[in-house]
Write a structure and sequence with these properties.
Rna Polymerase Sigma Factor, Chain: A; single chain; 10 helices; globular; about 160 residues
Length: about 160
Amino acid sequence: MLLWQKHQGAISRSLLANEADPAARQDLKQDIFLALYQAAERIQTAELPRAYLFRIVHNVTVDHIARAQQQKWHPLDDEVQYQLLDDCPSLQLDEQQQSQQLMQAVRRLSAANRQVILLAMEELTAPEIADILQISHGAVRVRLNRAKTELMELM
């Protein structure tokens, strides 16, 4: 699937930001890929295919988080989260430390703010984010401002 390959990096970053447990992250990745495979024809014919793809990623992730909360999974401690990011050979040390701090801060955001900021970090426009999350354009701007403020306080 061409869109999966084109946006695999963004999807992987979303996985890392939303799931610290490697096994659960792999399950989520498989769930997302299956959902994208099943919706491949609808994605290709969608008015905004990229936004439609991210809506599917968002919906599958929300379902995953809801199931995890029902099962009361506990997130990994900070040391293990740092180790996960340490395994990324393509980042320089400074960038790696900044990424770790940012990812840790993003994980502390509320679910609504985390979803908006993750999509914005993938350079999706506010209208695309509104379409993905099925909220108004104004609500996206408000959430982005709140998320940025919250991130600045956390960092």
